[in-house]
Design a protein that fits this description.
Layout (H helix, E strand, L loop, with lengths): L1 E2 L19 H35 L8 H15 L2 H7 L14 H36 L11 H28 L18 E2 L1
Antiparallel strand pairs: 1-2
Helix pairs in contact: 1-2, 1-5, 2-5, 3-5, 4-5
């Protein structure tokens, strides 16, 4: 069983990554911006919820749109818009079970096939959700209730998160094949800086 803790260089960057012509550099800059937007959104949610609680129990005047706003939009932002950067930093939960009897090339091939399957599944889901978002936008669909919350926004957030995650996985797979099937590219965007601990 191999655990891959994020290295110091793989943590969320404090400064924007340098401009790069490579797809990875472009993805890193998008993820950097979305991380900041999501962080500000989380702080905004905390302030809004505090205001709602104070209004509800102190002044008997709750903020009626808080639950819908947070559950429809902010939750999707915190879950999906940071998925690509979480994969880049190795912050997701991973569990590698290595079958010692398998030859290393075969094990590497199986891992590559697994990543291809994951990318294809996420790409299909993202395509379906993107189509639903476009249809909801053209039809002007909204959630039923006192406030007319547009459906296309929440679907668009999910679709964007899937698109970035698929692009991140696709970039790793491309580098894996171009490097002559170096298995390190399947687990890190920068194998030279990644560290691993075997337990």
């Amino acid at each position: 069983m191999t655990l891959h803790p994020p290295s110091a260089t793989a943590r969320i960057q404090q400064d924007p990554p340098p401009v790069s012509e490579s797809p990875k550099g472009f993805l890193d800059r998008i993820d950097w911006a979305l991380n900041r937007i999501t962080a500000v959104s989380v702080l905004a949610v905390m302030v809004i919820i505090v205001c709602d609680v104070c209004g509800r129990y102190i002044f008997s005047r709750p903020v009626p749109w808080v639950y819908d706003f947070v559950s429809l939009y902010f939750m999707n932002m915190t879950l999906y818009l940071v998925a690509s950067d979480t994969l880049r930093a190795g912050g997701h939960i991973t569990l590698d079970l290595k079958v010692r009897l398998l030859p290393r090339p075969l094990w590497t091939g199986l891992q590559a096939l697994a990543w291809l399957a994951v990318m294809a599944t996420l790409a299909l889901a993202g395509w379906k959700i993107s189509g639903a978002a476009v249809q909801a936008f053209l039809a002007g669909d909204v959630h039923p209730g006192f406030y007319a919350w547009p459906i296309w926004i929440e679907k668009g957030i999910v679709a964007l998160g899937f698109l970035l995650l698929v692009s991140r996985i696709g970039t790793r797979l491309a580098r894996f094949f171009l490097s002559g099937f170096d298995p390190r590219w399947l687990h890190s965007d920068a194998p030279g800086t990644a560290t691993a601990r075997t337990v």
